[in-house]
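Saturday, quiet lab. Running sequence design on the structure tokens for the scaffold JK sent over.
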């Protein structure tokens, strides 16, 4: 199974913010959309960073309550690991584990196309295993 199948099932919508916006805006995006990470893109197309819940916690530890008024650039991870639509699910899961990344932006021809989370990967794998089990049961019962 490839990432494009996961994106086909879940959709390609990505919540983004600019690096010059304040962290308060970022927190609102996370809460309002019930998501764990926001992709940071200053032009709406090129990924310059990503911010997840852990980054917010680390920012609070470092800056205290004033974090909310600081720019997203102060807490974002600029070393963004990404994947492509044709990448194998197993390889992406391995990368996510190795990089301790819960979310990976999906890049197509250098442009932001979607985002995939570890939850999306797990759900796809469970669905795949359930389908395989149903086929095996049908085969055994004739």
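Result came back. Writing it out in full:
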């Amino acid at each position: 199974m490839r990432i494009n199948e996961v994106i086909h099932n879940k959709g390609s919508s990505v919540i983004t913010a600019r690096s010059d916006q304040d962290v308060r805006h970022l927190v609102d995006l996370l809460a309002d959309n019930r998501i764990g990470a926001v992709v940071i893109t200053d032009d709406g197309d090129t990924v310059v960073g990503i911010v997840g819940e852990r980054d917010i916690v680390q920012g609070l530890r470092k800056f205290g309550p004033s974090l909310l008024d600081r720019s997203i650039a102060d807490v974002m991870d600029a070393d963004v690991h990404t994947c492509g639509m044709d990448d194998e699910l197993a390889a992406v899961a391995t990368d996510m584990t190795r990089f301790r990344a819960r979310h990976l932006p999906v890049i197509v021809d250098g442009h932001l196309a979607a985002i995939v989370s570890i939850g999306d990967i797990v759900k796809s794998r469970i669905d795949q295993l359930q389908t395989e089990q149903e086929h095996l049961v049908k085969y055994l019962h004739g």
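Notes for JK: Helices lie at 3-10, 23-33, 53-63, 89-99, 118-140. The CA atoms of residues 40 and 75 lie 11 Å apart. Ask whether to fix the surface positions before the next round.
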